[in-house]
Amino acid sequence: MDGANRTLVLQVEDLAVSYRTRRAQVDAVRNVSFEIGRGETFGLVGESGSGKSTVAFAIVSFLGRNGRITGGRILFQGRDLVGRSEEELRTLRGNRISMVYQDPMQALNPSLRVGEQLSEVLTVHQRLDSKAAYERCVQMLRRVYMPDPELIMQRYPHQLSGGQQQRVVIAMALLNNPALLIMDEPTTALDVTVEAAVLDLVAELRREFDSAILYISHNLGLVARICHRVGVMYAGEIVEQAPVEEIFLRPAHPYTRGLMCCLPSLSAGKGSRSLRPIRGQVPSPADLPPGCLFAPRCDQAGERCQHERPLLRSLGPEHVARCHVAGEPEVAAPTTAPEPLAAPAAETAQPPCGQPALRIEHLKAYYEQEQRSVLSLFGLQPRRWIKAVDDVSLELPRGVTLGVVGESGCGKSTLARVIMGLERPCGGQTEFFGVDITCPLGRRDPALLKQLQMVFQNPDSTLNPAYPVGYQISRPLRRLGRLPRQEIRSRVEQLLRAVRLDESYYQRLPGQLSGGEKQRVAIARAIATHPELLVCDEPVSSLDVSVQAAVLNLLHDLQKAYGITMVFISHDLSVVRFFSDYVAVMYLGRLCEFGPADAIYAPPYHPYTEALLSAAPIPDPRLEQKRIRLSGNVPSALDPPGGCRFHTRCPRKLGEICEQKEPPDRQAAPGHHIHCHIPLADLRALEPVIICEER
Amino acid sequence: MDRGLPMQGRPQDANAAEITSRVSFGLSGRGVPGGLSGRWRELTRGRLGFLFSSQIALIGLAVVLAWIVVAIVAPLIAPYPPNEGVGPINQPPSAQYLCGTDDLGRDVLSRLIYGSRPILILAPLSVLLSMVVGITLGLAGGYLGGVVDEVLMRVVDATMAFPTLLLYMIIIAAVGPSSLNVVLAITIGGAPGIARVVRSLALDLRSREYVQAARLRGESGLYIMFVEILPNCLGPVIVDGCLRVGYAAFAIGTLGFLGLGLPPPDPDWGRMVAEGRKWIMSAPWIVLFPSLAVTSLVVALNMVADGLQEELGRYR
């Protein structure tokens, strides 16, 4: 990294890119400059709409028909790529730049075997004969730690898991021995445990191949783990750039600081601190503020920030920020106390106390696997079941939050849907304050429907695009509430205020709202009937971090004001930590561990919890994290492994007992259940996953 | 989370919101600012704005509107009564008979003008009816699924297995030719196609989270089908409907040509072609002008549909 022997691979200077839309020309990226040397990883972080992908596409001149580079230079190994013809680009760039995209399935041709696709790269670009190409490909697959490379070569992409697919794509990108590897959110579609393995791979490959990597991500935690230098993008500009430790220890730009404050931390439990969201939204590139782009959302902004666009200022060695006030001590933000939420109206009868709010006993939910053989047509084949939720039992007191975590396919969403009645269980019982709610939705009476509501994952499909916000919030009131007609409007406005939106939203259509606003409306709709139990299925996972923080705070406040019991499903361990009193860890339809949140995040751990924790990205380079990587894939739920379901991947597997016997339910402490054969004393002796260095 | 090209997506997202509000038939009312220019702006930017941003749709709409005007003011602009011989037979177009005369000495132009009336009333009416039937069947099949879907779709498939024209002929042969029965035939012929389209849309929409939210507050199946799902599949159905009005106009013409359309002597374009075909070598204008009329209407409706389609597709 020393200036002396540092060879620059990519230099981007004052890059500007604009897109032509039907209305106007939109300057998507302006004034972006950075450089990457050999063997370095440069991280580009920012929220959606910040222009980070556009930068990547500009480098490979793949901007689409309406995109154009309008200024600046892109030097690749010293030669400018801007303004060259397709032919010139090909010779300049050769096959020395490779790109890995977010979705591996889109980069692989589903109708060709993995082997054919990989060797094509070599036979076409390097004119190797097919035998030599095959050899090289097998070698490369081995280098990206793919088990059984010969077997993988024979498979079709859909026969591989997401992590394996992404590894094939990375192998393909590396086959040409690229000088520059561009990775655009390569792990966003993957589970944490797989993500951790892919990231390790990326870090290792950089060392081994000595190529330059441009790593694009929205996740500060990932960037902290693998990058040398970081550029933070906001509204099409790089607002701060510095070595990774600088950025995390001494963030100078208020936006960078804001992003850090938005992140829930794995090491801080519920209520220990509240998140500080960044207010407002990223300005549209067609309508930028006159002064500093961040000024409208900045707490530090002074008079000057409103009128004068700041230039990049140096704040230290290799540390630059585009801010007038950067480096000055942070002014304590005026903490505007949120408007106290109206207490629920007296119409809700207090449920009997003493009963657990939610009790689940031996709950099972199986789906029948559709079979396409002729035999099954005549009922000659045994029916096969996907065991989405298999024998889950737990109990939840009133007014607390249960966090449910696990990788995709572990059955956490099915669990939520069964509780709500959207899916019918095929065994076991769910009880709500002692009332059996195992029945399907059609047979629940309105008084019960009122008590159970749900917040969904996808902000774009949670609201009906055809109706204005006000109508959608009022519908549950009209249907389930006993409110006089003329009071409905004022009640809806009150709900809008409760989710921190003003009355002007009443008439708006969902298409006119941002993702975070849609999710707030969805929350307002869910709490309109004062539910006792609110199930949130990944409510923040498709939101940007700054918006995510605001929604989490909102849910937190609502719970405090209304005393709602919540089931909060997420794949993000830090979010669950921030939000939950109790945590359930699920794997392949089974409960691994269940207990109070603080107990889950400290030893004794279930080995799976331990692995999950050590895979979670932490946005703090000072924290040391134990490195446990799970091998293999999650087995199919059609045919789950016998004994302990986790034994196929467990790094602490004892031996035969794990394969043959169901793990016992051990109580590590009152209410803290661990389903594992390993004696509790041994589990207690485990080191904590996250070790905080001296601050 | 960040997906794909955010910067490219953003400005369009804002427009997407607008287009949804244009075509979604939402409940929001918008006040019209006073003054004629304000009203014009409202029209060009508002719900029908897509017509003004797409040249093709605009031309198509102009032609359709022109025919509608012609049909309305037919008695005022027709130079002669349509069903009387007003001159020598088989006269070529001249200053006196702009489109010539037919074999009974009737003025072709006047018959053409009056002939627009049945087509412009019956075609949209039959499409509207087939939409009502098709949407109901499609929603029921797509949302309820299971046995209901299976039965409905097999019936639909069976109907679609008949060649359309044959189906029309069977129906009309059974119930006799009249304008009402022409509508009935086209409704039965068109509904299965619409049902298929709506079913596939409903299948996709029923798993949306707003539908689940509706189920969670105990809404009835009818409410979910017609209030939650229907407005969101109307866009494609309306595009499809525009095309169908064009086909229906053709079908009415064809049935007229086969003598199964409207009873004589009132003119309709199809019958005019049918009657004139005997003279196609000696007096081609009798066939030419009604054919051109049918073609212009069908092509114009297709252009409107294309414009709509393009606009919807751009914001999908």
Task: Write structural notes for this entry.
The complex is a heterodimer of chains A (695) and B (316). In chain A, strand 1 and strand 2 form a beta hairpin. Chain A contains 25 helices and 26 strands. With 695 residues, chain A is an alpha/beta fold. Chain A folds into 4 domains: 1-96 and 179-265 and 317-334, P-loop containing nucleotide triphosphate hydrolases (Rossmann fold), CATH 3.40.50; 107-175, no CATH class; 358-370 and 378-582, 3-Layer(aba) Sandwich (Rossmann fold); 602-691, no CATH class. In chain A, helix 8 (192-209) packs across helix 23, helix 17 (469-480) packs across helix 18 and helix 18 crosses helix 19. Chain B is an all-alpha fold and 316 residues long. Chain B has a single domain, classed as Orthogonal Bundle (MetI-like fold). Chain B is built from 13 helices and no strands. The longest helix of chain B is centred in the middle third of the chain and has 37 residues, at 108-144. Chain B is elongated and about 75 Å long. The two termini of chain B are 19 Å apart. The chains are: A alpha/beta (695), B mainly alpha (316). Chains A and B meet through strand 2, helix 1, strand 18, helix 17 and helix 19 of A and helix 1, helix 10 and helix 11 of B.
